[in-house]
Design a protein that fits this description.
The chain is mostly beta strands and 67 residues long. The protein has one helix at 61-65, and strands at residues 4-5, 10-11, 18-19, 24-32, 53-60. The protein has 1 helix and 5 strands; from the N terminus they run βββββα. The structure holds zinc ion. Zinc ion is lined by residues 12, 14-15, 17, 59-60, 62-63.
Length: 67
């Protein structure tokens, strides 16, 4: 994960703390929601059609380092 310096104040998606201007942050894409109704899926997961929306979220340095 590459950290960038923010030019504006952001909020960490994970811990909700604020990332102030000049601090390091990273962006991560997360899946929004779970499976979409109407999509097909087999029991064994051999053929899976799952449409997930992925959105980028801001994360503070602390949250990105905790793994
Ligand atoms: Zn955080």
């Amino acid at each position: 994960m590459k950290l960038k310096k923010t030019r504006k104040a952001r909020n960490c998606y994970s811990c909700k703390s604020s990332i102030s201007k000049g601090n390091l942050y990273g962006q991560k894409s997360i899946a929004l929601g779970s499976k979409v109704n109407g999509q097909s899926e087999t029991a064994e997961g051999m053929y899976t059609v799952v449409h997930q929306m992925r959105i980028p979220v801001d994360m503070c340095q602390t949250c990105l380092e905790v793994k």
